[in-house]
Structure formats: structure tokens, C-alpha cells
């Protein structure tokens, strides 16, 4: 069986779309588990579970995504888990393409491809496009040269036996899970055509909040496993690749602003020297403009 888990928080406006797009994949012998702490989201999801018994509704305690995933995985029945979020949606072949990679017994997890749906005609939409495209190129290059990649938390699949119990304080659970897959001797594949569509932040405050917790989360993982996955130095090495995506003067200035913003972001991340000791709720904040 395939267990498709959707984690959500206060997303009644988007959870229906997320469920519908998963149902369009028509995955046989599957179940969909919607886990959220708020009644608004769960009541919207119940409109679908009342018509389809394969959809299960789970209320979590509101302790964050890692805790919600632990709960949902424990209640799931599948040998393979597909993980996604309630504020994104996928294409009609995303899941079947993810699952196809498990024909290779060496593969323990498969990442989907995040695609920005934010308008490129705005500063933050252009930033989202750039960062999504460069992430795609880096994953493809890594696969080509048989290097490690890390799953995107927006959409990935994993063999159930490889899913680790998650510390509730984790900020980048996708990075931690990916590390555990490699640690157990398995590979992570990349399904470029398994697209997951995302609305990214549309203002600087939300952009910093989101990036500080996601990028900073990898700094937290470094403290937990003593392996550096992402750093300012590593990121800087590929900075000039972004000039390939400039098509006019406006985009050139937006790119320069992005460079300066990333420098500021890393400054804030390095301020979080005690990130391991801080509570998750002190760092994780909801990003309203992505909803």
C-alpha cells in the first residue's frame, strides 16, 4: 500500500486543491492521510473523506510538522510513504513517477521538483523562479555525477522502514530524513517531472522568515550530525550561475538585491549560534503570503 501524507496548518483554502490533485494521480491501493491541528482545515478535508473512505483525517497536537509526521506515519499502513503539504499541489503524474524509481532496490527515497507559481514579473516571484531553477539544475547535476541530493519537503517519497523518528525541534526535517536514508546505505533519486507547485513569499519579512527557518535548519542539522550540508561558502560558489537567467535590466537589479538579501540572511542564520538549544516555536513562524 501507498500512504500519502498531507501535513497542514490553517490551510482551509488550499487543502481541497491539494487533495483533488492527489486523487487525479489515481494511485491504486493507496490511502491519503490529512494531518492538521486546526478544525478549519480538517473540516474542509472531511468534505472529501465523507465521499472517499481512503482519505483519513488526523488531528495533531499543534507541535509542528515533525511531530505531525511522526503521528501520521504511525497511523499509516503503507510500505511506501509520499509526503507533501496542504498549501501546495502536484501534477497528475507526480506520484506515479516518484514511485517508479523504487524499481531500483538501491533507491530509498525520491524527491519531487518544486516549481514556483509566483509571478516572475515581481521581485519576489523572480527570486522564487531563480532559486527553484538553480535547485533543479543542481539536483540534476548531482544525479549525473552520482553525488548526494536531498529531498524537497514539498514532495518526496520514502520507503517506510527508512523513515526515522523525528525530533520535534527539527526545522528542516527533509534534510534530516535525507541524511538518514544515506546513512542506511540507500540512494536518493530525483524525479524532475514530479512537479509540485508552490506559492512563495511576496514580501521581504516573509521571505526572511521562510529562508531563515529552511536554510538555517540545515545549520541545525550540522550541529546534530556534524556534517555540513549547506553553508554561505558553498552557496557562494554557484552565485554567478544565476546571471544566465537575466533577460532585462529590471531582472539584473533584482538579482543584485537577491545577492545582498542572501548575505543578510546568512548573517541572521549565523546569529542563531544556539539554534539547537532554542525551541522550535521561537524560530518557526507562519508565512502568510504563501497561502
Explain the layout of strands and helices.
Blueprint: E1 2-7, H1 15-23, E2 30-36, H2 39-49, E3 55-59, H3 65-75, E4 80-85, E5 89-90, H4 94-100, E6 107-116, H5 123-144, E7 155-159, H6 173-183, E8 187-198, H7 204-225, H8 232-237, H9 249-271, H10 280-283
Parallel strand pairs: 1-2, 1-4, 2-3, 6-8
Antiparallel strand pairs: 4-7, 5-8, 6-7
Helix pairs in contact: 7-9
Describe what this molecule looks like in 3D:
The chain has 291 residues and is of the alpha/beta class. It is built from ten helices and eight strands. It has helices at residues 15-23, 39-49, 65-75, 94-100, 123-144, 173-183, 204-225, 232-237, 249-271, 280-283, and strands at 2-7, 30-36, 55-59, 80-85, 89-90, 107-116, 155-159, 187-198. An eight-stranded mixed beta sheet has the order 3-2-1-4-7-6-8-5, sandwiched between helices. The longest helix has 23 residues, at 249-271. It is globular, with a radius of gyration of 18 Å. The mean pLDDT is 88.
Please sum up the structure shown.
This protein has 291 residues and is α/β, with parallel strands linked by helices. The chain is 43% helix and 18% strand.
- Mean pLDDT figure: 88
| SSE topology string | EHEHEHEEHEHEHEHHHH
Strands, count:
8
Q: Rounded to an integer, what's the Rg over CA atoms?
A: 18 Å
Report the portion of residues in β strands: 15-25%
Largest sheet: 8 strands, mixed
* Percent helix range: 40-55%
Backbone structural class: alpha/beta
Tally of alpha and pi helices: 10
Q: Rough shape? A: globular
Low-confidence stretches: none
